[in-house]
Amino acid sequence: MFPVTVFLLQFFITSVFTSPNSPCITPNKENARCIPVKSCNVITNALLTGDTEAIKFAKQSQCGYGSEPLVCCGTMGLPIIEQHVLEDRANSDNRNSPCITPNRENARCIPVHNCPVVLNALQSGNNEGVNFAQKSQCGYDSVPLVCCGTKGVQVVDIFDHRLLADWQTCGIEKSNDRIIGGSNTDIDEFPWLALLRYTETTFGEDAGFKCGGSLINRRYVLTAAHCISVSSNQGLSLSGVRLGEWRQSTGRDCVGKKGLQKCSDPPIDINIQRSLPHPRYNTRTRDNDIGLIRLQRNVNFNDFVHPICIPPPNGELPNVGTSMVVAGWGATENNDTSDVKQKASVPLVASSDCSKKFGRRGYISDNQFCAGGVEGKDSCQGDSGGPIMRFKIGTSDIQWIQEGVISWGVSCGLANYPGVYTRVSKYSTWIVDNMSNF
C-alpha cells in the first residue's frame, strides 16, 4: 500500500484541515462524505489510470487533510458532465424528458444517482465506462441528468490484424444521423458499403448491380459466395465494384438547401483482380456463404469510402433480441434496387426458433444466424452479400462491426420469417489467411 499512498499524495495539498466523515458535495454535485483518499475506490482507481481529467477531478474533490488527503467520495471518479455543458443546460427543463441512449434505446432523462447502468459504467473505472456515461448526458438540474436505459456499455471485440483496417478507426462514419428505421440513410452513412456490378456473358452488356459487399481494407471487399458464383447459373460475370455511392441515379450526390448543401465525392468504380468464394460453400443449404474480392488497386479513404471492422475469430454474438442494422440498395439477383441507400434495424433471433420457422426449407448451422422477421423490415433494405452490423461505443465515436453477410431468406420483409446471415466471426481467420494468399 505504501507505494500507492505515495503516488496519491503527490496530487493533493496539505494545508487544508477538515474532520473526517464530514458532509460534503462532490464536483458532480453529489451529497457525500469527506473520507481518506485510499478509502475512496472510485477516486483511487481513476487516479491510477493517469488520466488528466481524473487528476483534475481528484484535486477538486479534496475536502481536507488529516494524516492523509481527504476527498469528497461520491459514486464517480470523473466529471460526468463538462463545464460548458453545465452552462448550456443549467436552465433547461430536461428532467424526465424522452431521450435516446448511446445504445439507441428510448429512455428518460433522470438524475445520474437514479440510473444504475450509468453508475455501474462510471464505477468500472475504465475509459469505455466513462465515455458511455458522458455520452449519456442529457442535461443538468441541480445534479447531472443522464439518459437512462436498461443496457450499459456494450463490449464488442474488433479483430486487430495487420491485414485489416486499423481497429481504432475502422467502422467510424462522419454521419450524425442516429435514427434507425426502414428509411433512407444520410449521405455519408455506412461508407463501407459496396455494390457489385455484373456483365452478361453472351453479349457483354452491363447487367447492373446484383449484389452488395463491404470494404474491409484498402484492397478487399467481403461479400457472399453466392454473389461470386452467380455467373454459373445466370449467364452473368462479376465485373466490378462501386464504392462511395448514395443515390444511384446521379453522379455526385448532394443534400440540403442551396448554399448549405452537403455533397459527396463522385462514386468510385473499380475493376476486380480476383474473387474467391469459400471452397466449402454449399449451394443447397447456403452454408459457408462468404467470399472475398480483391480489387484491381488500392482505394483512398474519405468520408464516403471507409472500411468496416470485423469481429475476432469465434467472437460471440450479442444477446437474442439485440437490434442489428442492415443497409444498402436492396440489390439481389432477381429484384429491382432502391435508388437511394436504405437502412433498417432488425432484431437477432435465436437459431432454434429460426430453424423451426423454416422447417424443411433450411437448417441453420453454427456458421449462420438469423435476424429480422419484422414485416417490411429485413434485408429488403440491405443487399444480398452486404453486411449486417452492430455498433460499439468507441473512445470518440460509435464504431460499427460487421457480424454477418446477408445470405438468404424466404421472402423480403415477410412477417415472422427472419433472414439468414453468414456469421463473420467463424471466418475471420479464413479471411485474413486468404487476403495474403490469393
Give a brief description.
Residues 1-18 form the signal peptide. By secondary structure, the protein is α+β, with helices and mostly antiparallel strands. The protein has 3 domains: 2-73, 2-Layer Sandwich (mini-chromosome maintenance (MCM) complex, chain A, domain 1), CATH 3.30.1640; 83-148, mini-chromosome maintenance (MCM) complex, chain A, domain 1 (2-Layer Sandwich); 183-435, Trypsin-like serine proteases (Thrombin, subunit H, Beta Barrel).
Strand order of the largest sheet: 18-19-20-23-22-21
CATH topology of the largest domain: Thrombin, subunit H
Write down the CATH class of the largest domain. Answer: Mainly Beta
Let me know the CATH homologous superfamily of the largest domain: Trypsin-like serine proteases
Count of extended strands: 23
- Please indicate the count of domains: 3
Q: Estimate percent helicity.
A: 10-25%
- How much of the sequence lies in strands comes to 25-35%
Radius of gyration: 26 Å
Main location: secreted
GO molecular function, one term: serine-type endopeptidase activity
InterPro entries: CLIP, CLIP_sf, Peptidase_S1_PA, Peptidase_S1_PA_chymotrypsin, Peptidase_S1A, Ser/Thr_Proteases_Immune/Dev, Trypsin_dom, TRYPSIN_HIS
Family: Belongs to the peptidase S1 family. CLIP subfamily.
